[in-house]
Amino acid sequence: MPGTDGIVATERICGERTCSRVIAITAFDVDDHAFGMLRAGASGFLLKDAGPDALCAAVRAVHAGDAVVSPRVTRRLIDRFVHRLPSPCAPGCHLGELTSREAEILGAIGEGLNNTELAERFTLSESTVKTHVGRILKKLHLRDRVQAVLYACRTSHKDR
User: What is the pTM of this model?
Assistant: First the structure.
C-alpha cells in the first residue's frame, strides 16, 4: 500500500463511522502487527495461508457482526492482554445485567465456541444463539466477538 500501511488504513476506514468492516489478511504473523490491526478497529485478522473456506467464513462472520482472529494469534492475544485488562468490577462493568443464560453463553464464547457449537451445547437454534450474542454485546457495550472473548477471559480469569 503506497503511502500508508494496513494499520493506518484500518484506522481511517473504521474512524469514518461507516458500516464498513475490515478483515486484515497478512503474511506478518507478528504480535505487534496483529494487535495493532485489532486496536485500529479491524473485525478480523487472518494470515495469508488461510484457505479459501476460511476466508469465505471470515467474510460471512464479519458481515453477520462477529469477529474472526487467526487461531495462531488468538491464544497469544489472550495471554498477552488478559492480565492488563481492568478487573470485572471496574466502573462501567455491566456483567450483572446478563441473564444466567447469557452469562453461560458468554463463558462458552470465551472458550472459543462459534454459534453452531453454542447452539449444540445449549440445545438452541442458531438464530436464538445470535440473539443472545447480540444482547450480550449490547449489554456489555462490546463492539464484536473478539471483545466478548477478551471480556469472558478477563472475568473468568478473576475467578481462578
Answer: 0.51
